[in-house]
Amino acid sequence: MFSVIIPVYNKFPHLDRSISSVLNQTxxxxxxxxxxDSSTDGSYEKIQEFSDPRIRTFRRNVPGSGxxxxxxxxxxxARYEWISFLDADDEWELDxxxxxxxxxxxxxxxxxITVGWEEIDGNFFHKNLKIGDKALxxxxxxxxxxxxxxxxxxxxxxxxxxxxxxGGFPSNKPCKNGGDVDTWIRCLSHSRxxxxxxxxxAKYYRDTVNRVTNYKTNKSNIxxxxxxxxxxxxxxxxxxxxxxxxxxNKNIYNIxxxxxxxxxxxxxxxxKKMYVTKYSLTRISKLFFLLLKNKF
Length: 296
What we know:
The chain has helices spanning 15-23, 43-47, 68-77, 96-106, 141-146, 160-166, 179-190, 219-232, 238-263, 268-271, 278-295; strands spanning 2-8, 30-36, 55-59, 82-85, 91-92, 112-121, 124-127, 136-139, 156-159, 194-205.
C-alpha cells in the first residue's frame, strides 16, 4: 500500500537506524525504495547488504542538490499511490505506517497525511508539535504558512498523483535548502484535504553527518519558494494571502537579523520583497535601530 522512499547520500553511520525503523513497522504492506545519490562513504555498499524482498535499490551517477532528484527518481519508480518519505538519518516509530493507514481509511479523500515529530539534538529531546487533544486535525496551506512544521518531509505521506501533478521536488531549481518547502506549498495549494496525526511518530536528528536540512531560516528556504508563493497569491483567498505575507515577512526578517548579527550589514534588496504591514514596518524599524547602534 505504501512506497517508502529514502534518498541516501553519505549517511553510512545512520543507515541501520533509518532502514530498520521501516523494515520493522507493525504495518508490513509496503515497498522500500533506496536511492543512492552517488555516495562516496560506502553508503551504497551498505544498503546492498539489506536482504529483504521489499527493498528496491537505485543509484544516480551524479549527486543532486538537497536530495530532490533522488526523491523524484524514487517517485517515478514507485508502485503504490501513497508515498512516504524518510531521510536516511532520521527514524520512524514502529507504528508510523499503521497510524497513517488508519488516517487514510478514516478520511479517504485526503491527499496528504502528516504526523507529529520529535527533534533530537544529542541528549536533548524536544517534542516539536502536538496540538490539543484531537487525534486528527485537518489543515490547509494557510495553516502551514503560519505553522511550517505541520509538514516535515520525514513525517509526510502523500498521494503520488498529487506529487506528479504539482511537479515533484524542484531538482532543477538552484536551491540546496528550501526545496521541500516549495514542494509542500505547491502540493497543499492543490490538496483536497490534508490531515495531521496528533501523535509523535517520527524523529528528526540534528547531530548527524552531512545534514542538509536546517530548520533555522536561511535565504534559500524562502527564495526557493518565493516564485511559487507569488504565483499562488493573486487567486488565493484572503486568509491564504495573509498567510503568504506573514510567511515571507517573517522569513526575510529572520534572515536579515541573522546577517546583521553576523556581518553588521543589511541586504536592502531583500527588504524590497517584504509586504508593507504593521509587522514588517515594526521589524524593519528594529533592524535599522540595531544597525545604527552597531555603527556608533
